[in-house]
Design a protein that fits this description.
Layout lengths: L1 E5 L9 E7 L6 E2 L4 E6 L4 E5 L4 E6 L6 E3 L3 E6 L2 H4 L8 H4 L12 E7 L9 E7 L6 E2 L4 E6 L4 E5 L4 E6 L6 E3 L3 E8 L20 H13 L1 H4 L13 H9 L18 H9 L34 H16 L2 E9 L1 H14 L9 H14 L5 E3 L6 E3 L5 E7 L2 E3 L2 E2 L7 H16 L5 H4 L4 E4 L19 E14 L5 E14 L5 H16 L1 H7 L2
Length: 534
Amino acid sequence: MIKDFILPDIGEGVVECELVEWLVAEGDTVAEDQPVCDVMTDKALVQIPAPFPGVISKLYYAKGEIAKVHEPLYAVEVDAADSEAPVPAASADTAASSSTNTTASADRQVEDFMLPDIGEGIVECELVEWLVAEGDTVVEDQPICDVMTDKALVQIPAMKAGKIVKLHYRKGQLAQVHQPLFAIEVAAESGSAPVAQTAAASAPSGSASAVSQAQTQAQSGSQTAGSSMVPQGKALASPAVRRMARSLDVDIAKVPGSGKNGRVYKEDIERFLKGATPQAQAQPQTLPQGQVQTGTAATANDRVEPIKGVRAVMARMMTESVSSIPHFTYCEELDLTELIALREAMKAKYSNDELKLTMMPFFMKAMSLALTEFPVINSRVNADCTELTYLGRHNIGMAVDSKVGLLVPNVKDVQDKSILDVAAEVTRLTQAARSGRVAPADLKDGSISISNIGALGGTVATPIINKPEVAIVALGKVQTLPRFNAKGKVEARKLMQVSWSGDHRVIDGGTIARFCNLWKQYLEQPQEMLLAMR
């Protein structure tokens, strides 16, 4: 019988995708789980596998066209017994060759490992790296793969010892929470009988109308599958570009594309609205003798790669912060000569592998003491700016330039910790962030942030507030500069420029200036910080 394959949900909020490449052709025989095509969503490249074996009878989309979720993607001719009838227990050995959820032998069985909850509100994650291959033997708790959520890089361990039979995702694909991640052959539980299971979807048995409907859809899609790359009324473009065209009331089929095979980009739509034509589509012009054309040669080495994972989240959050929060900046100079001398004297005694006594713990503790006097700096405002919540916990975040992008883990309850306690947490979070393995709990519930740009050499910045917080400070590098002392003599001092950004809806310039002056006092005169501690 002929059965339509319905394009399933391939990501939260994704309703359409671009058909990037067919990996099979009409008339090809496919096996269960064999890759059939690659589709591109706004988030990632996803490979669509065959849920059951059969012969491809129709491809409903041409390469480059937009496929709809929950609509037929292709038609496949399958045996009625394979698609409708359950597999009897007597044929378990036969079913084992085509299903990963079957008994491998009398004392071994294949189980699917379901991707567990890996963070509050997380429904999918990107498969960053497989740490094993199919056929590898693994032990309990051995790391299997690294996955990237919107917040952190998470390592998935094996729950049982066994042999990896099937990896359900490729590197770079999006894995769904509560769905099979990999299949593993493990020892059968004692007393359990081998039972073969199939994952193929069932269809109504003996339904002649279903066959008729599939044939009708195949006929209606025949012109689509055999059409050119960009048929009339359509264009080669990503879903994001199509949404842009719809929002601007532009017929995307009329927009000349500058990409390969006429692909339309956002810049092409913008040029179309201005009445210009893309450079790649312009007719070659005869140049005067001796003049060299450089327009297209400059793009020969351009490289395009998708923005995803932590970088995509950062881009979205920074855009939202700038567009919804009225920022203002306040700068100040700190004289850290005394604090640096104190830290140098204490570093040798208290630093070890688990605790690095850097300047950051002092900055955090001084900030927490100042927040006690100015609680509005440690608050958050609701979406329509009608309520202000004063936060009791001083969860101070620190921006870390990790290998997976910008991460902002925070030290919880700084108001209740000593400087050494804060130092131990800073050391732990820094090591975790730089390896990209920060726990989701360490990234949540921050109340204010510190960005240490000085570690890379900067002095002044205009930091972007980490929404829903209301303030952030950027620390510049320490510089040895001449300054006049109380006696009017010039001496070398160790100075740092700091740059504050505040949410002008709830913080005014006077408030952040007074807050910064108190913070500065604690840092410039460490004995004042000592006396203020409770």
